[in-house]
From TrEMBL:
It catalyses: L-tyrosyl-[protein] + ATP = O-phospho-L-tyrosyl-[protein] + ADP + H(+). This is receptor protein-tyrosine kinase. One of its GO terms (biological process) is negative regulation of apoptotic process. Keywords: ATP-binding, Kinase, Magnesium, Membrane, Metal-binding, Nucleotide-binding, Transferase, Tyrosine-protein kinase. The keyword DNA-binding does not apply. Gene3D superfamilies: Phosphorylase Kinase, domain 1, Transferase(Phosphotransferase) domain 1. Residues 1-259 form the Protein kinase domain. The active site is at 111 (proton acceptor). One of its GO terms (cellular component) is receptor complex. It comes from Acrobeloides nanus. It is an enzyme of class 2 (transferase). PROSITE patterns: PROTEIN_KINASE_DOM (PS50011), PROTEIN_KINASE_TYR (PS00109).
Length: 303
């Protein structure tokens, strides 16, 4: 990576990518890159990183604005003692807004995670590494390269099926990204014992059995149910980004109702909370509609 001064007095990042077209049959891949780059350059959303250009002379280099604060993943780790609920929910809202815009342009991200969100300033984040991901990150479908902790369960079952990628799979990843934000960038499923040689299959079995990431200790039950619906086993029953943007717009207006401050965190019965997802998905399946079943505190305590 290198820094350059743009004509408009803006620092830019020149990022080399792993895929080296100069060592491949250029043809189709190069044409697809140029096409996708042209589409990306036309995108205009305040919470998407702007693409200034790409160069194919020696491999692939991407020119984009430099964000000295770095990725949201690292920012959360460094600032976990000072970030407030309003900022955590604001990040979720801004990411949902950017993803809703991508959907409107028929673009699937494929690799949404806190590491692929950049911090422009304390109250402004940008989704990055979108659009070109289908071309640049072709190895994401390889079992050894797949970011399995972030991908939807249906992809774990059929990792090489590109046709499965959709808004619904990005919604699953969005739920994981929100979980990262609420936990200040903890590793998803870090406490789950997975079979190393068969990690995709073992995580797929874990999820297929109804288990999900546990509720973060600072997360309200209502907010947790929103995350659980991002991880619904049936992709059709997951929220879309329009609904998620609307929900997080509501959440950020009253942040302390949905996220507690670190000073006020109380112990949550994680074993009980692990059952919430199973109950929610059972109710969703029985309802046979898009209406979202609610689990109140009384129901939770009776589990």
């Amino acid at each position: 990576m290198a820094e350059k001064q743009a004509n408009m007095n803006q620092l830019v990042l020149i990022k080399a990518n792993e895929l080296d077209i100069s060592q491949k049959k250029v043809g189709v891949e190069e044409q697809e890159l140029i096409k996708e780059a042209g589409i990306m350059a036309q995108l205009d959303h305040s919470h998407l990183t702007k693409l200034f250009g790409i160069c194919l002379a020696e491999g692939i280099t991407i020119v984009a604005p430099l964000r000295p604060l770095g990725s949201l993943e690292n920012y959360l780790k460094k600032n976990h003692n000072s970030l407030e609920p309003k900022e955590l929910l604001l990040y979720c809202y801004q990411i949902a807004s950017a993803m809703e815009y991508l959907v409107s342009r028929h673009i699937i991200h494929r690799d949404l995670a806190a590491r692929n969100v950049l911090v422009k300033k304390r109250e402004h984040v940008e989704v990055t590494d979108f659009g070109l991901s289908a071309v640049l990150h072709q190895n994401l479908i390889l079992p050894l390269k797949m970011p399995y902790r972030w991908v939807a369960m249906e992809l774990l079952g059929q990792p090489r099926d590109k046709a499965l990628y959709s808004e619904a799979t990005d919604v699953w990843s969005f739920g994981i990204t929100c979980w990262e934000i609420l936990t200040f960038a903890r590793i998803p499923y870090e406490g789950v014992r997975l079979d190393g040689p068969n990690v995709l299959a073992s995580l797929h079995t874990y999820l297929k059995n109804g288990s999900r990431l546990i509720r973060p200790v600072n997360c309200s039950l209502e907010l947790y149910q929103t995350l659980l619906l991002c991880w619904a086993p049936n992709p059709i029953t997951r929220h879309n980004f329009k609904v998620l943007r609307q929900q997080f717009e509501t959440y950020k207006e009253d942040p302390h109702k949905y996220v507690t401050t670190q000073q006020n965190i109380c112990v949550i019965e994680t074993i009980i909370d692990e059952d919430i997802g199973k109950v929610l998905y059972e109710k969703l399946e029985k309802s046979g509609s898009d209406e979202i079943p609610k689990i109140n505190e009384e129901t939770r305590l009776s589990m």
